[in-house]
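Repro:
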Amino acid sequence: MRTTLDVRELGRATLARQYLLEPTDTPVEKVVRHLYGLQAQSPTAPYFALWARVAGFRPEQLSGLIEDRAVVRMVSMRGTVHALTAADALELRPWTQPIMDRDLRTNTQHSKALAGFDREALESWSRALLEETPSTLAALRPQLAQRWPDRDPAALAHAVRDVLPLVQVPPRGLWGRSGQPACTTLEHWTGSVLAEPDPERIVLRYLASYGPASVADAQAWSGLTRLGEVFDRLRARLRMFGGPDGAELFDLPDAPRPGGDVPAPVRILAPFDSLLLSHANRSRVFDDAYRRVLFTVNGIVKPTLLVDGSVAGHVTLSANRSSAAVDVTPLRSLSARVVASVEAEALRLLAFAHPGLDHEVRVGSV
């Protein structure tokens, strides 16, 4: 008989793999590889994600990897920006190319203007230009308008993002520095060729970081469809479980699955944290009733507060020249003991993000 996992057991399994039950002292590059994609729409989001997971994490540990080209920032899963190891990016970007192709066909803002465009010519022309001098796509528009005067340059710039595997080069993404999202190709930046994707290996890597998971969960994480065929080929190598909603869940045989009674400490997650975005059924992490609060209409995913393994609120980090503060907005009642733990974690966050300033934590009420 297939074992059924309840919500707490499922959540604890994923938290263990995400280093959110106990921080890891694993080297940062290996952590980035294990986590298999840190959401990076916000330049600082990967730093906060690693702070929540890596013991003693320092921002320069990730900045150094980005400057050394060992970690790159680029569009991949779900058509959104992720921080990935260079080796993973070389496989995941070709694997997620169907997302970019779909965007070319269906983008409501640009698809009509791109009808019938010469994809090969655009790809060749823009590759040569961006490999010679990295540029933002906005800055590319005047040259696109000159080369294709009968086309909308904004639409062509958007198409460049879809047809080429582009990385955002430093100083974009470095801690404490600012920079526009200037791009060059992944191949040029890493000095390597794109890899032939192995869907079975990719799914196994996903399960190691986010499992146990259903086919729908993996499709939600990746933005791709028809992954059921991949899971079927892997079925003999995996363990199957029942989910709390009756879904069939797949997992690596030896992956950690701690019991639902294992303590889960208070954690503050990064904005856009991948934990919140990598499953179709997110009940292992938060109640769907909170979705509209945590996910704004303009695509922002707020930094969230985990209490006993699930989302219990969201936080706002603010600072001026002399002081910094964390405001905590609970979504359910918190005991005095939990509030004390929340305050301690928020002070730890302030010490990381804004050392040397005066710090204040304000916890609201439901």
